[in-house]
């Protein structure tokens, strides 16, 4: 049975996500987004397609039997790309002590979830700060590693309108290893406040009900599932709630792994764990998601009060 080292797999994913960032910024600069509607309020652009093709094409060149679930339904043309598998090698000794089984995972129990471009709607109308590429690695139904790549930001992850500042930023984690490069970004005036972040473009009655139940001190509405989860990860928000169908497993797997690595939580609004599967009937987060960095049960209780 084929075995995979998580650090080699994540190194390849990180390399491919970073290169997808270049694809995404160059499509954006060209102005030729070629927006197609997959459904009501569900756009896809040339950048979503090319990014997914680049990532899956690269992974296929290294591991032909990997199970991959990508957001877009498209052909994957053969590429010459051989992704780097060695960029995280320095973490091998530490991982061997903490999660030795991760150095030799059964391929058949791995599923890779790819959102080649999260926040497509914002990408199409120029609000590119929330755009990111999300790659999550699940093992036996649970997220164990992930990478998110923000193309339109400086090295600190600050969004910029000026293309000269777009150096991009990767945030990656393996559950069980310390997370590299994350900062607590809570503003001093927001310490002690409850900050809730939710959708800017898919508002509905359930979202309003959830806000009324949690009664946050501050409410932020912005785009992208990855962007909102990163806000929780960096302590810019306490809770991200989207209590209804809309996001899919590829929107949350990578961010979920990074969240778990810093002891955060992601469940459905009833507090049930998400099961990562490639069963197309179970790809929707049909009850929605609740994402926190602490006090998870408090928010679940508030959401379920009568
Ligand atoms: N109704 C929907 N149809 C398709 N994708 C959705 C829907 N609702 C949410 N999403 C996905 O979840 C992300 C977060 O949603 P929101 O910004 O409303 O909070 C969106 O950027 C989109 O990901 P994507 O852009 O990768 O298609
Ligand atoms: Mg989409
Ligand atoms: Mg998405
Ligand atoms: Mg997407």
UniProtKB/TrEMBL annotation:
InterPro entries: CysQ/Inositol_MonoPase, Inositol_monophosphatase-like. Its cofactor is Mg(2+). One of its GO terms (cellular component) is cytoplasm. Keywords: Hydrolase, Magnesium, Metal-binding. GO terms for molecular function: hydrolase activity; metal ion binding. Pfam families: Inositol_P. Mg(2+) binds at residues 71, 115, 117-118, 251. It comes from the Eukaryota. Belongs to the inositol monophosphatase superfamily. This is Bisphosphate nucleotidase. It comes from Dictyostelium purpureum (Slime mold).
């Amino acid at each position: 049975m084929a075995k995979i080292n998580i650090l080699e797999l994540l190194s390849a994913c990180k390399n491919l996500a970073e290169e997808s960032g270049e694809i995404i910024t160059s499509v954006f600069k060209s102005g030729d987004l070629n927006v197609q509607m997959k459904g009501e309020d569900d756009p896809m652009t040339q950048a979503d397609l090319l990014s997914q093709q680049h990532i899956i094409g690269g992974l296929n060149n290294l591991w032909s039997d990997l199970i991959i679930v990508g957001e877009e339904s498209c052909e994957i043309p053969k590429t010459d790309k051989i992704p780097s598998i060695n960029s995280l090698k320095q973490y091998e000794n530490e991982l061997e002590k903490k999660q030795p089984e991760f150095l030799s995972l059964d391929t058949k129990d791995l599923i890779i979830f790819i959102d080649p471009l999260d926040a497509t709607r914002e990408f199409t109308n120029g609000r590119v700060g929330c755009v990111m590429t999300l790659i999550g690695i699940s093992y036996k139904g649970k997220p164990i590693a992930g990478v998110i790549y923000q193309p339109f930001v400086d090295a600190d992850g600050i969004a910029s309108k000026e293309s000269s500042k777009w150096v991009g930023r990767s945030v990656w984690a393996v559950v069980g290893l310390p997370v590299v490069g994350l900062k607590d970004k809570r503003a001093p005036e927001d310490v002690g406040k409850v900050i809730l972040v939710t959708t800017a473009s898919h508002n509905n009655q359930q979202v309003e009900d959830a806000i009324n139940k949690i009664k946050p001190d501050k409410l932020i509405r912005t785009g992208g599932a990855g962007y909102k989860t990163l806000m929780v990860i960096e302590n810019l928000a306490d809770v991200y709630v989207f209590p209804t169908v809309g996001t899919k497993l590829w929107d949350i797997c990578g961010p979920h792994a990074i969240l778990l690595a810093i002891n955060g939580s992601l469940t459905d609004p009833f507090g049930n764990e998400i099961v990562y599967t490639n069963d197309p009937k179970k790809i929707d987060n049909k009850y929605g998601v609740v994402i926190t960095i602490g006090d998870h049960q408090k928010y679940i209780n508030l959401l379920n009060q009568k």
